[in-house]
Design a protein that fits this description.
The protein has ten helices and 18 strands. The chain is an alpha+beta fold. It starts with a helix and ends with a strand. Bound molecules: ligand MTE and molybdenum atom. It comes from Herbiconiux gentiana.
């Protein structure tokens, strides 16, 4: 009986490990990849209506808790059974564990919105759990074999009732007094105190492995689960939000903003395709209903603003292209979105910055900070907002839900703080943003740049009329002209699409008459201040890449 209980315990510990490992990986892969609730949802979806009604009738609003409890009991029974099976009839226990985990993999990967990697956490958990179960069962058998080898201890379960003196073997192999074998031990012979020392070692090997597995699984599993629960709660809260409409709508993106060329970046970047850069290992879970923003530091009047305060203000809408300072020439760490928010300028006017303040240090819930020049945020002609909406939706969680900063014309690292909770008025002498002590410039105005999108790298180009097209940007300044050069030819003007304003990128196209052979095409932009992109190549650090984007094409 005792061995059976230990075998069941090994099964339970292994199953706990499967769930805990899946839960921990789901912290990074996304809370929706956690198998726990996926299985629950699958059961709810598959349950016949009659059963659903019955459960609701019996448990009322506690129906979900009842379901989860029932599922928990079933999983625990199956886990114990897997332990018993693996101990008695290896590898059937592992097979059972894989089977049950397989159902969970099926549940996660068939949920609506499941991605290609949704099953990964459960699969990794399953493999680790199977290996653990095998190992624990092996150790249990080793212990059992050692314990039952000596006839005197043939019935380990009853050892406690057996007078210890009948087993005169030293309790401790390393005991320094082997000459006095009968030395009365004060510690009663433990239940698993076989004649041979090896039995004790085997016993310890099993108990430690099982104990460590169980404790680690419960500990890590509970922490990971609560993180995943918070993330799911925020996702649900976000989906429930309806944003107010803008008091000042954006200039509509003109029909002519989109050249309609295959392979060219679309004028507005869909949220799902928008590049994401941050230092957050796990996306912070901030609920709008508990969010608040403080304006602190060198101000006459500290201000605190809740989500309801913020969305009650007359919001503005602005199309702004956001770029990362780490974007290489030709890179894709840039995107254009329609942002809904409230001008920071207005809030600063309420807080009344003290003389001498020249930096607004925006601080995120995750500790990230960005140092933005105060005068930029006070400039009445500059878009600088606390954004709550992105392309008509609440900010996606990974893009800063519920509130982030967006400032036109500055790289993200010095302006675009996501999950923002504080604006501290300070000075560039006193303070620095997150990236400045890490080798990046304190100031980060966006550099005027242009990029070739088509023909794509490696595309086969046929001789004849071929569009060369891409995007160019100089946020807050605007693009004046884009030119293309083929081989050693002259710079030729590209045709510019329309834009909603100077804060966004612009599509451009050059109608090229491609001739057979290898060619090199380059692009350069001139902004409305009259500056033409330098050919001098600079890498992103410390203040943004520069140089002409060039692509080699072979035409046949
Ligand atoms: N909280 C927080 N905000 C942040 C960052 C960060 O690491 N943490 N990275 C910044 C950088 S470097 C960039 S380029 C932009 C990217 O914003 P996105 O991920 O929405 O594209 O966010 C900025 N805001
Ligand atoms: Mo960035």
């Amino acid at each position: 009986m005792r061995w059976k209980l230990w075998a069941a315990a090994a099964g339970l510990a292994s199953a706990a490990a499967v769930l805990a490992i899946a839960e921990v990986i789901a912290v990074f892969a996304g809370a929706s990849t956690s198998p726990l609730f996926a299985v629950g949802s699958l059961v709810i979806d598959l349950a016949p209506p009659g059963v659903k009604d019955l459960v609701i009738q019996l448990f009322g609003t506690g129906d979900k808790a009842a379901l989860l409890t029932l599922l928990g009991v079933i999983v625990a029974v199956l886990a114990a059974l897997a332990g018993l099976l693996e101990w008695r009839r290896t590898p059937f226990g592992v097979a059972l564990l894989v089977l049950v985990s397989g159902v969970a993999v099926l549940a996660v990967t068939t949920r609506s919105g499941a991605g290609a990697l949704s099953g990964l956490p459960t699969v990794v958990g399953m493999i680790a759990g199977a290996l653990l179960l095998r190992m624990l069962a092996q150790r249990l058998r080793a212990w059992q074999t050692a314990a039952t080898r000596t006839p005197a201890t043939a019935a380990p379960a009853r050892v406690a009732a057996t007078p210890a003196p009948t087993t005169p073997a030293p309790a401790r192999v390393a005991a320094p007094a082997p000459t006095t074998p009968a030395a009365p031990s004060l510690t009663p012979a433990g239940p698993a105190q076989p004649a041979a020392g090896a039995g004790r070692v085997d016993r310890r090997r099993f108990l430690v492995a099982t104990g460590v597995t169980a404790v680690a699984a419960v500990f890590a599993g509970v922490i990971a689960r609560s993180m995943n629960a918070a993330a799911s709660a925020v996702t649900a809260a976000r989906e429930a939000i309806t944003l107010p409409t803008a008091a000042t709508p954006a200039p509509a993106a003109p029909a002519g903003a989109e050249l309609g060329i295959d392979g060219l970046a679309s004028y507005i970047t869909p949220n799902a395709d928008f590049y994401r850069i941050d230092t957050a290992l796990q996306v912070p879970s901030v609920d709008a209903s508990t969010w608040s923003l403080k304006i602190t530091g060198m101000v006459e009047q500290e201000i605190e603003l809740s989500w309801n305060d913020l969305v009650a203000l007359p919001l503005e809408e602005h199309p702004v292209t956001l770029a990362c300072v780490s974007n290489e020439v030709g890179g894709d760490l840039i995107g254009n979105a329609l942002w809904l928010g409230y001008p920071i300028r207005e809030l600063l006017a309420r807080a009344k910055p003290l003389a001498g303040a020249d930096m607004v240090l925006s601080r995120s819930i995750d500790g990230f900070t960005a140092g933005t020049p105060l005068e930029v945020l006070q400039d009445p002609d500059r878009v600088g907002i606390l954004a709550v909406g992105m392309n008509g939706e609440p900010l996606p969680v990974e893009h800063g839900f519920p509130v982030r900063v967006v400032v036109a014309g500055l790289y993200g690292y010095v302006s675009a703080t996501k999950w923002v909770t504080e604006l501290e008025l300070t000075t560039f002498d006193e303070s620095e943003g997150y990236w400045t002590p890490r080798g990046w410039s304190a100031l980060g105005p966006v550099k005027t740049e242009s990029r070739i999108d088509v023909p794509r790298v490696g595309a086969s180009v046929a001789a004849g009329s071929t569009p060369i097209a891409g995007v160019a940007w100089a946020q807050h300044t605007g693009i004046q002209k884009v030119e293309v050069k083929v081989d050693d030819g002259p710079w030729a003007d590209a045709r510019l699409a329309d834009t909603a304003g100077i804060d966004t990128w612009v599509q451009w196209v050059y109608d090229w008459d491609a001739t057979p052979g290898d060619h090199t095409v380059s692009v350069r932009a001139t902004d409305r201040s009259g500056y033409t992109q330098t050919p001098d190549e600079a890498s992103p650090a410390p203040d943004g890449a520069s140089g002409w984007h060039t692509r080699t094409l072979s035409v046949s």
